[in-house]
Amino acid sequence: MDILDGVDDVAFVRLTGKDVVRAAIVARIVTAYERFEESNTKKRGR
Fold first, then answer.
1. What does 1-46 look like in DSSP terms, one character per residue?
2. Residues 9-33: pLDDT tens digits?
3. Which residue of 2, 16, 31, 41 is surrounded by the most CB atoms within 10 Å?
């Protein structure tokens, strides 16, 4: 994300499974990414 810092018209938004209401599969994918990120953060000691 640092690479794109300062590039006009580019933004990053963090979504959770609660933000996704249209398709259940998309909510499950977002939730899986959340679990993965949380697990990796704990492993790195952050």
1. -GGGTT-TT-------GGG--S-HHHHHHHHHHHHHHHHHHHHTT-
2. 998 888 777 776 778 888 888 889 9
3. 31
